Amino acid sequence: MKSSNQLNIQAYARAAGVLFLLSLIGGGFGEGYMPAKIIISNDAAATAANIKVFAFLFRLAFAGFLLESLCDTALSLNFYVLLKPVNKQLSLLAAFFGLMATATFAVT
């Protein structure tokens, strides 16, 4: 029989897997696929025209980016909880780096 703490850790691990998968899908679409289709290098007018023509896809790509950011933030919490039994300082460091990476990425 598994203890409730072990079941709780497994739930966090499963949630981390789902969040990581959603982050990959949202980020891949919002940052990898769509910018390559919309952005024309060295031609701001053509890029603006593409954004105007593909407005829905542009918004969908932005939503994918937001999904990735939210999932990354939740992953930081999950890594904190999962690593806390191993080493509290390591788990705090992982959460700090995860949150700082997400914040830096959002600003850029």
Describe the structure.
This protein has helices at residues 4-38, 44-53, 55-83, 88-107. With 108 residues, the chain is an all-alpha fold. It contains four helices and no strands. It has one domain (7-107).
Instruction: Kindly state the number of beta strands.
Output: 0
Report the sheet-strand fraction. Answer: under 5%
- N-to-C span: 48 Å
**Structurally, how many domains make up the residues?**
1
Largest sheet: none
Give the % helix: over 70%
Helix run count: 4
Helix-strand pattern, N to C?
HHHH
Mean pLDDT: 89
Q: Topology of this structure?
A:
Elements: H1 4-38, H2 44-53, H3 55-83, H4 88-107
Question: Quick summary of this structure?
Answer:
By secondary structure, this protein is mainly alpha-helical.
Characteristics of this structure?
108 residues, mainly alpha
